[in-house]
Amino acid sequence: MFAGLFQTKRKMTKAELVNIIAIKTGIDKKDVMAIMESLMAEVKNSLGKGKHIYLRGFGSFIIKHRAEKTARNISQNTTVMVPAHNIPAFKPAMEFVNAVSKPQDKNSNGLKKNVLLTTSTKYYSIINKGAKCIEDITHVAFENKIEKAPCLISTYSKEDAEKILESSEIQAQIKKMGIEMEVVRIK
Fold this sequence. Notes:
By secondary structure, the protein is α+β, with helices and mostly antiparallel strands. The chain contains five helices and nine strands. The chain starts with 13 loop residues before the first helix and ends with a strand.
């Protein structure tokens, strides 16, 4: 069920990105969304004023000038003059290019040393019962207490996760919150 939960998809929406950042940082989704919206608005405003934005190690948002040119309108079989104009562009930093251009192992976890998660026994987590994807997670067992999502997700060996779930401390919290928790394989 959760075998592919943390594998990357080919496309990611803004909402999915906000969810991931909220879970990794523990910041409320609304706050992350406000930050994301402010960042995008500031990039648009700065580029609109002709200012480039340089983010060391990530890349640059720049303006590219396109000269006036002749183009063809194929449907009417006529030539059209396209006026000179500016377009926004993103130029990735060399570190970014290197990270993307290296062939990715399907089991890699994105760490610099490219450690495979499957070589470790710690790839089980304790989450609310019935969650089918990361957006469905409402509660997580983190450091021997139940946390409401978004929060950091701890991974354990299967045996350790089962012991934690069966502990009286966790069982008391589960009963108090009125939820059901289960051990799931996340990778």
